Amino acid sequence: MRRLIVAATAALTVLGGAASAQESIKIGYIDPLSGGGASVGEGGLKTFQYLADELNAKGGILGHKVEIVPLDNKTNPQESLVQAQKAVDAGVHYITQGNGSSVGAALEDFVTKHNSRNPGKEVLYFNYAAVDPSMTNEKCSYWHFRWDANSDIKMEALTNYMKGQPSIKKVYLINMDYSFGQSVRAAARKMLGEKRSDIQVVGDELHPMLKVTDFSPYIAKIKAAGADTVVTGNWGQDFALLLKAAADAGLKVNWYTYYAGGAGGPTAIKQTGLENQVFQISEGVPNSGNKAAMDFEKDFRAKTGISVWYPRAVNEMRMFKAAAEKANSIDPVKVAAALEGMKFDVFDGGEGFMRKDDHQFFQPIYISSFGSLADKAKEPFDEENTGWGWHIVSKIDTAQTMLPTTCNMKRP
Amino acid sequence: MAELIVISTLNGVLFGMLLFLLSSGLTVIFSMMGVLNFAHASFYMLGAFFGYQLTRWIGFWPALVIAPLLVGVVGMGVERYGLRNTHKHGHVAELLLTFGLAFAIEEIVSMIWGKSPVDYRVPAVLDFPAFTVFSTNYPAYKIFMLVVSVVIFIALLVTLKRTRVGLIVQAALTHPSMVGHLGHNVGRVFMLVFGVGSALAGLAGVIAGPSLVTQSDMAAYLGPILFVVIVFGGLGSLPGAFIASLLIGLIQTFAVALNGSLASVFGPLDPSLGPSPLTDIWNVTIAQIAPILPYLLLVLVLIFRPMGLLGTRES
Amino acid sequence: MTAAIQVNAVEKSFGNVQIIRDLNLSVAKGERHAIIGPNGAGKSTTFNLISGHIKPTSGEIRLNGEVTSGLRPFEINRRGLSRSFQVTNVFARMTVWENVRCAVLWATGHRYAFWKNVDSLPEVKQRTAQILDDIHLSHRRDVPAGLLTYAEQRELEIGITIAGGASVIMLDEPTAGMSHAETERAVALIRRLTEGRTLVIVEHDMSVVFGLADRISVLVYGHIIASGTPEEIRGNPKVKEAYLGEEVD
Amino acid sequence: MTNAPTPSLAAAKQESSGALGFYGVWLLAAAALVVLPLVFSSGGSLTSFSLIGIAIIFALSYNILLGQTGLLSFGHAVQYGLGGFLAVHVMNAAASHNWPIPLPVIPLVGGIGGMAFALLVGWVMTKRAGTVFAMISLGIGELVASSSLILRSVFGGESGITTDRTSLMPLFGWTFGPQIQVYYLIAFWVLVSAIAMYALTRTPLGRICNAVRDNPERVEFIGYDPHVVRYLAYMFAGFFAGIAGGLTAINFEIANSAYLGAMQSGFVLFSTFIGGTAYFFGPILGAILVTYLQLGLTSVTSVWQLYFGVIFIGIVMFAPGGIAGILMKHRPLIRAGTLGTVIPSYLVAAIPTLAFALGIILTIETVARFSGGDPINLLGIPFVATAPTTWAAAAVLVVGGFLVARITWRRVADAWDRAATVARDRGYLA
């Protein structure tokens, strides 16, 4: 009976939506599509386009087709604002962005100002990867929703894992010298101190971002400090070069990373041969064991040629649909209200929720390591054709990732 | 302490030689033609990608020879059909031409090989630790890079100072019209020199590619530092570039090794002062600013000795 | 009366090579003084030393009694000395009018002014027009200097040199490369324009030298071997031996 | 503005009748700035106009260095960015202390910021021109950009410092929240700055800058210290760059380290050079074109950077005078009345040239989209990147276009020579 009603409603919406179906929901995808960050941005775009296709194949959202509008921001905050304005002018009410906290902060500020100055033309900012904690703390905005765990949450999860690893005794922190790297470093020091006061932080390095060509001197310092574990938020070439220098010098430590799986990362790890020594904190793993997720992964790889690097994007789009249906509207104001506090079964299984206080999504977090895959049936997915893949070392439940917020949310 | 000094010196020399490998071609072109080639790092990138592609097809060692030659041919083409026509409009125009070229090459490379890093690996023959100092391994490949750098330095020096070709090149630099009147085709000499300079960049790319990250934005990362090297060493001076590379390599490496900041020397500031530029400066470590030290050096050198360390002229 | 230019025991070396040895020269105010000498004698170097283009290794140079050795060229220029160049040295992309006007600006006291419209400065306009008239280039006033004929560029060179109204004018081979007719015209021009000023001239053309100069100094190997009136120089045996004997005009 | 060439062949002839034309041009520009948003009223075009306006001031300020004084700078964004930062700080301070500073004077604050930095470092920087200056500017640019990430309390790290332009004292009821009000604010400053910078070229200092550009050695012998001249030029350039930076800060309500970076410095060099450095209005054309391309090209093609590079190379090689240079080359012909004899040959040459250009575009897009992407839409005709017919079409256009274009351009050159000879005879061409 209930099914029938659902079907009938669906049919009605399709019929009723026929008129409005011409009006698609445009999501402005603002990320680098040219220049240095383009490899990452293109991966994200493919992901969102795939997700839009998936939604549209099932009738879209409330009968509206979902359309991704790619906007190239060259990883430049100013350019992002130009693109955001362009998108808004073209009738876009939802923008999504992930790469670069500086861009994220600029966009968050943009939507807040835009919405207060243009009531009735609200825009929502769905953040799928900008992890600066300030965006859901002191700078928080009602119009911003973040599906990625911020860097403090990831550190909370990581340190909760590390506190159960007695072999970790001496930790070295090396990070890129910008806000993300700094928050990784600060959070690591604070949380390790609270949870495992016996762990010694033997080094704490910040190096300029994307300027170092030779990491050997840093490796020499890590070695001299006698570290057994390195925690790093490095990504891109700063990660690859760091790892290469370590392998060259024969440094044997465990690497706890945020973005080892980013474009080029797996290739670098395979090159250095550091099997099962590089760990990653993420909200999803291709070899998660969750059937639905793994089927999705398989189809996604077949269609796009890349792996699902953004399970959070999947959560974002599916939850968007759920919220719109809950509000029975695609009006951004109503969708925003529906999203607040919403609970949602996440991509890799388990429950997450969008905290009302700060619009931060909380979800289970995984620690995985990179190496050869023993059981191809259970763990079928490798990365970047290296033959190696991620396998889960530990799962940290949603409750273990909760952190308080300083957000003083201003509601319209 | 001894460990730190020995290892830092070794690392500094290795890094410095990589810098020299990259900047030698730039210096040769500049000393000869007075052209600051902004696209030099792009030629280096072309070398790396050609090297990568050829390694997949025919192996590393043939690639080591062929890829630089290909880059040299590209360079000669640029000189023949681009720079030569621009020469009459002055050095600024030449420089801007290479500026535009750098943009185009980056995009072309990313069109062909994509924007992600490619899997360009150290050849198996050289993939072993050459020796170990204080339990730190030094891979054979790095030693290979060092040897190539030194060989190139000596070969260039000998060619420029001791051979007829070198004499013509040197003379064409100071008195182009005279050399022209003596029956040498200055145009062809220029083209050849530009080709050789580009080929050197290409060679650097083939060799540095596996050790660094071979990606379409690799040129943008290394471009500015190369200018620092050749300006610091003295525009157009090969020994200057050699010394500058070593110095910059050592300075950067030692700076990284040092943890000192003003706070660690004079004690932390009173926290009640709150965040200010002073606290920022107070707490920044030498290691943190290591990679921007070369630029500081560049500015200081240009202010106090505009011809650079061993240079003889200003522009 | 103090001399316009007084050079006392000046030496100049480039590395190990001594170009100027114990150079002594005195040019009285209002005098037309020519410096002659064989090629490579150091005439241009002497010019460069006096005008501040290069600094002497030792010795002293005075302009109107004031020590100027060690000063920068513009400082010397502001004290009333202006020079021309052997190789044409004008502002190639600017028009003839602009070339001369730039040379007028400092002397008329406008200096680095960025609050005045350069086109509405009557005295600048008048003086520039006058000089253009004097050097017979009024009809070419809007032509970029780089596009002038060689002789015109030489005339412009003289125009720029005298435009500032300096009391001491130094001309470095002003007629070099000119035809006979052009030379005659240039000499008349120089004579007229330097009326009442001190003139120092380097020249190879002896007819120009002997027709124009009140006094002549002969420079050989960086040293002045004789100084005097044209008649004295003609009759000087040292000059005959060292210079006229070798390079008879 | 077209009567503002530096080496004007006929400035004097115009002088008497020029005054009216001179004010006329500026009045016309002012009217155009007022009317523009009424004609193109969509939000998108307002944003574009605002950005173009800022780019114009920035490029004009750069040309004080490159075109007027002959200084090639690779770090002009430093003054622009610092002006932006100072503007943001003053805006925030004014908002929190309730200072009675209306928003329209904020760009002036930016200008002072840019000038103050130039004042500070300019003296040692401008000691020498040429390569030394270029390299010092590169070094200073890198240093300041890097330091901006270290001095977090001033520059706010890489996320920068935000501000709210509406929080300042409203002026005549304008809060400057809506983009249209910001547009008019920018337009006002564009006009004021452009007039000021044009006036600067007509002052004794402006003329001496040209002299320093042409021949710094000779300048020393007409009483000027070229070092002082360069220093002053550098300060003025810094001032106007700072104004542009202040306007950017107002427009985006944020200042971050990207303002100071090499990208910005390169962008302004591009604009100025493409527009043409020899004429005052050149950078204006360049700024309009480059900003427009930057906004437009990115949504049309993913390889916009390649087109930028190709356009730039083309300009450097074939028209080093930039767009303004091309236009001004025709001026003597127009005056002599012989332009008409050239135009037919242009029209003939345009066809194969266009074909050649289309062929290049098709080739580039074919390569770019070979491994996937939408079909190429060229003049409404769809081309599939993987289809051999597309390759053939590209090859025919490139090779055929090139060969035919070469012949037709020779004819243009002949026609030009004839027209120029006539113009020379009539006294309009030296």
Structure write-up:
The complex is a heterotetramer of chains A (412), B (315), C (249) and D (430). Chain A is an alpha/beta fold and 412 residues long. Chain A folds into two domains: 2-149 and 290-362, Rossmann fold, CATH 3.40.50.2300; 152-282 and 365-401, Rossmann fold (3-Layer(aba) Sandwich), CATH 3.40.50. Chain A is built from twelve helices and 15 strands. Chain A has helices at 2-21, 38-57, 77-89, 101-117, 151-162, 179-195, 216-225, 236-249, 265-272, 291-304, 311-327, 332-339, and strands at 25-31, 66-72, 94-97, 124-127, 144-146, 170-176, 200-207, 229-232, 254-257, 278-282, 343-345, 351-354, 361-362, 365-372, 388-396. In chain A, the strands form three sheets. Chain A has a seven-stranded mixed β-sheet, sandwiched between helices. A five-stranded parallel β-sheet of chain A has the order 2-1-3-4-5, sandwiched between helices. In chain A, helix 9 links the parallel strand 9 and strand 10 (278-282). In chain A, helix 7 (216-225) packs across helix 8. With 249 residues, chain C is of the alpha/beta class. Chain C has a single domain, classed as P-loop containing nucleotide triphosphate hydrolases (Rossmann fold, 3-Layer(aba) Sandwich). Chain C is 35% helix and 24% strand. In chain C, the strands form two sheets. Chain C has a six-stranded mixed β-sheet, with helices on both faces. Chain C has a four-stranded antiparallel β-sheet with strand order 2-1-4-5, with helices on one face. In chain C, helix 3 (96-105) packs across helix 4 (122-134), helix 3 packs parallel to helix 5 (150-163) and helix 4 packs across helix 5. Chain D is globular. Chain D has 17 helices and four strands. In chain D, 74% of the residues lie in helices and 2% in strands. By secondary structure, chain D is mainly α. Chains in contact: A-B, A-D, B-D, C-D. Chain B binds chain D through residues 36, 82, 85-86, 89, 91-93, 95-97, 99-108, 111-112, 224, 227-228, 231, 235, 275-277, 279-281, 284, 288-289, 291-292, 295-296, 298-299, 302-303, 306, 314-315, and chain D through 72, 124, 127-128, 130-132, 134-136, 138-140, 142-143, 146-147, 150-154, 262, 266, 269, 273, 303, 305-306, 308-313, 316-317, 320, 364, 367-368.
